[in-house]
Amino acid sequence: MADVRVVWSPELLAYDFGDGHPMNPLRLDLTMRLADSLGLLGDGAGVDVVGAEPVADDVLETVHEREYVSAVRAASDGGRGDPLRGLGTTDDPVFRGMHDAAARIVGGSVDAALAVWEGRALHAVNLTGGMHHAMPGAASGFCIYNDAAVAIRQLLAAGARRVAYVDIDAHHGDGVQKVFWDDPRVLTVSVHESGFTLFPGTGHPREVGGAGAQGSVVNVALPARTSDAGWLRAIDGIVPAVVRAFEPEILVTQHGCDAHVEDPITNLDVSIDAERVAAERLHELAHELTGGRWVALGGGGYAVVDVVPRAWANVIGIASHHPVPATTRIPEQWQVEVEARYGRRGPGSMTDGQDARFRPWAAGYDPGNDVDRAVRATRTAVFPLLGLDPDHD
User: Fold this and answer.
1) What pLDDT, on a 0 to 100 scale, did the predictor assign at position 78?
2) pTM higher than 0.70 for the full model?
3) Which domains are delineated in the chain?
């Protein structure tokens, strides 16, 4: 059994909305080139790099409406799109081959999840995945098909009884929440910028799941400009407790890195160093609770050169049990590639120079702190539904 299965092939770069769109596939190419130059994908790294094929329509239709899948196919074959289904909008413009490109990403996440569930890999990573906004009947927020939701549905079909999904993207994981709103077998946890200041406008603390599944939806809505100490404190104050209470058999995580201070479309102020700490904590939770069964997905992240490659190379390093020291210098071969494409050098090292320290939630609640009030609102709303005391860990 490999330590980690990494889904990657150049064909996955075909998910491309065109010039000027924030979801630039070069972010993925640069990520994998950086991971390779850091030695994370080579012989001896304990990594199997595998490609992905588009999943069949019947697999997509475990989450998506048949009419929607047909609309995506029609649009990707040269049609005009269907704005009522989110196709052909500014966020989700139509491009030729869109169906196959999006279904291939789903194929990668399904492969990753089943490889872990079946014991063919301890961990699996699909950084092209994490398309958490796609709804059963519509595209949304750069997302055509919801690979995370389809992968979780496949895990349930394969016999999983409890699946935990934790999303640390700056945007609320609304599509995954929608799919599993009434399903007590799936815990969805999203730590994100408040919907009052950021798309999609949802993910408030009182969203806790449907009838028969209350407590299976957990949302932490953080104020704009939350930085490392508050972001990590929020994760610490919510995620370990709710995931432990749920007792999952497998952990699926979404590592959108758009909470970073340099991301051009969000309002959080998090560093690479804090994002590394968060990934490490989620990895530790998988080893503590699920026998190590962990599937890590990508997601948002629109600082193509300066943030995404470093954040996601760290995820690969953590998953392969070869974490990259924060002080590591960026290899020159990667810098040459960046200069050739962008006419400038990328960041010099794998750190932003932040210590990413935070005050643990157990140290006490501060009612005068905006982040603490946000965490407290979530604990008050959902902890009792999980048999937890909102006042104590």
Assistant:
1) 82
2) yes
3) 2-50+109-386 (3.40.800.20)
